Amino acid sequence: MVQIKLIKDWRSDRRGEIITVNEVVANALVKQDFGLLVLPEKQVQAGQDRPVVLTEEAPIEPINKVRKVQKIPKYLSVEEVKKLINQPYLEGIKYKEELKNKRRSKGQVWLKRIQNKLFAGKRDYAILHLFYSSGIRLAELVGLDLGDIDFDRGIVKVLGKGSREREATLTTEAIKVLQGYLKARKNWRGCKGEAVFLSRGGKRITRINIQRNIVRYGKLAGTTKKVMPHMLRHSIATHYLNGGMDIRKVQDFLGHESLASTQIYTHLQTDDQREERNRLHPQSKMKIKLI
Q1: Half-sphere exposure of residue 163, counting CA atoms within 13 Å on the CB side?
Q2: Rounded to an integer, what distance in angstroms lies between the CA atom of residue 154 and that of residue 176?
Q3: Model pTM above 0.90
């Protein structure tokens, strides 16, 4: 059990109570209270909810650094990605047919609503393709301007973490979908700026808008996980590594400054690995009986 003494009398009113490491670390960081001392461990890992006792007794050692526990990223299988990406396409086709068949019989309000939904379908279809093709982050995608796209070279220029610029890859399929969207964007009402992805009002799309839409598409696709934009980045990194791509090439693809950031993907257990381990495990040959 970790024992903690606060030499600056921080939260002295709670001495003797059992709290959690999370609470101690959070409060210490907020207050920048480096008088927080710990026994017997030299480090406290944020994210662990082990019991902690506030005490005034026993020898003490200083915390050197609070180290954040790195979680293994969640990702989608190739089949799950296909189903996810297909959702805005299906919606777009649906509204395109409605627009074609009922244009004359409906009023202007209906017409505007269907046009909005059709545009959103084309845009979101391009967004999902771009996420999976390039592995770029949400903020990088939102910040894209028209001049950042080079179809001839098959790249998009993005401004990543630490204001570092890099070139992200566009697959042939992503280029086709993106070009299709840009045709619709060109004549979209209210379109005046250089942003690649627009809201229905013609302004640069927001992060929350994209997040909300992708969560919805994940549900429509029948995915059991809560799908967020960053999962597509995790997915393509995992799929590349499983396909045999060198980890340093994946590092360059993701724009990671440190190889350690990329190595987290090597800890993921894929469906193929899980199946192989189950097949080769001696327990698979045992006759299991239930009590």
Answers
A1: 0
A2: 11
A3: no
Q: For the segment 150-206, what is each residue's pLDDT rounded down to a tens digit?
A: 999 999 999 888 788 899 999 999 999 999 999 999 988 877 789 999 998 899 999
3-27, pLDDT tens digit by residue? 444 433 434 444 444 445 555 554 5
Catalytic-residue membership of 265: yes
Q: Which residue, among 272, 261, 212, 203, has the nearest Cα to 237 in the 3D structure?
A: 261
Q: Where are the domains of the chain?
A: 2-68, 78-257
- Decide if 95 is catalytic: no
**Does domain 78-257 correspond to CATH entry 1.10.443.10?**
yes
Taking Cα atoms as reference points, which of 228, 194, 224 lies closest to residue 211? 228
**SS3 label, residue 213:** helix
The amino acid at 158: V
Of 82, 161, 219, 248, catalytic: 161
Reading the block at residue 179, the tokens are 């070009």
Active site (annotated) includes residue 129: no
Asked about 230 being catalytic, the answer comes back as: yes
Residue 183 is among the residues annotated as catalytic for this protein: no
Nearest 5°: the CA angle 146, 152, 157 is 45
Distance from C-alpha of 214 to C-alpha of 144, rounded to nearest angstrom: 18
122, 123, 137, 200: the catalytic one is 137
d(CA 62, CA 36): 7
**CA 230 to chain CA centroid, nearest Å:** 1
Q: Sort 192 into a burial class: Cβ within 10 Å, 0-12 / 13-18 / 19+.
A: exposed
